[in-house]
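Lab notebook: predicted structure, single chain.

Context: the supervisor wants predicted structures on file for every construct in the current expression panel, including those that have not yet been purified. This is the next one on the list. No modifications to the sequence; it matches the entry in the shared construct table.
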Amino acid sequence: MLKTSRGPIEMEPFDLDTGWTELPGFPEGLLVKFLADDLDEEAKSGARTRLVKFTPGAFTTHPLVHDYWEEVVLLRGTLRLSTGAPQGADTALTYSCRPPGTSHGPFRSDEGCILLEFQYYLR
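Prediction complete. Output recorded below exactly as produced.
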């Protein structure tokens, strides 16, 4: 997995159309762009900031649970629980905060979406 510095970054531009890679361990159509990442799940330290893109029709296959905090902002598109129930307001500019151990998903996005994710351990 890509590891990047968490040093100062000042208003660095990034492109939402290019530079995406497949999200490891997930079905086809889920893409990721790391902005900063020193999250170490073994040492239970660090943080990760990334963009996650669901291409139209992409989905996850099972609920997710992890031992770090996660905050997510739906920036663009729609995201639903795979059961068909809406996730939040189901449209862009919604927010989720998941303490460690919170089950979430599985998700799908019929039209596609982009999420901004912050994942971190508290000391």
